[in-house]
Design a protein that fits this description.
This protein is globular. Helices cover about 40% and strands about 20% of the residues. It is α/β, with parallel strands linked by helices. It has a single domain, classed as Alanine racemase (TIM Barrel, Alpha-Beta Barrel).
């Protein structure tokens, strides 16, 4: 095992202890929480190391950086596109990423649906909701969620399997709890509406600075960058 892998393994072991403790506090099973390694600032070799030590989910934010990495390691693990996706780049994620965490507007839904139909695929999306209301963050306003689901309900080549949000960056992760709790409430609300294309089973929330609180509030995917991979 290389030095890089050894270091990643040590970090992962510490993270695992924190995840396990958060699951115990919330009465959840450890296997219900999956780590997405956020690899936007690291090279392809580090992605190979992550896959080698057992990380199964890779998350990339920037398409231009992700494509060469995917070319090398795309046949291993499950790849998630977690950054803001420009509509004109939608064609490039089809067939490469198992999940798109950042569906946040109708024009993107239309383009993904069109491109997926041409490819004979159905794309699994997470609806990004701006629970915090911060103007600097992407995501649908909660006020627009119902209308968005109605407008996309006839799109046969996208399905909404999850929700995603980003909490404000705060020193005390307890301050992020209302945001995560709010997303979990939206999961219940959307499932009660019973839209055929929106059976929400996943919650993508929580990052390096607040993932424990996110787990306590129901996260199924936590997106970990700096706490796991620290680029030189």
């Amino acid at each position: 095992m290389s030095t890089g892998q050894e270091l990643l393994k040590q970090r992962l072991a510490h993270i695992e202890e924190r995840i396990q403790a958060a699951c115990e506090r919330a009465g959840r099973k450890r296997e219900d929480v999956k780590i997405v390694a956020v690899t936007k600032y690291v090279d392809a070799q580090t992605i190979g190391d992550l896959l080698d030590i057992g990380i199964g989910h890779i998350g990339e934010n920037r398409l231009q950086d992700a494509l060469p990495k995917h070319e090398q390691y795309g046949d291993r693990g499950c790849w998630h596109f977690i950054g803001h996706l420009q509509t004109n780049k939608a064609k490039d994620v089809i067939g490469r990423f198992s999940y798109i965490h950042s569906l946040d507007r109708l024009s993107l839904a239309q383009e993904l649906n069109k491109r997926a139909e041409a490819a004979g695929q159905v794309v699994s999306c997470f609806l990004q909701i701006n629970i915090s209301g911060e103007q600097t963050k992407f995501g649908l306003s909660p006020d627009d969620v119902l209308a968005f689901l109605r407008e996309t309900s006839n799109m046969k080549h996208i399905k909404i399997d999850g929700l995603m949000t980003m909490a404000p960056v705060v020193e005390n992760q307890e301050e992020a709890r209302p945001v995560f709790r709010g997303l979990a409430e939206w999961q219940k609300r959307i499932n009660e509406w019973e839209f055929p294309h929106a059976h929400v089973t996943e919650l993508s929330m929580g990052m390096s600075n607040d993932f424990e609180v996110a787990i306590e509030e129901g996260a199924t995917y936590i997106r970990l960058g700096s706490v796991l991979v620290k680029p030189e």
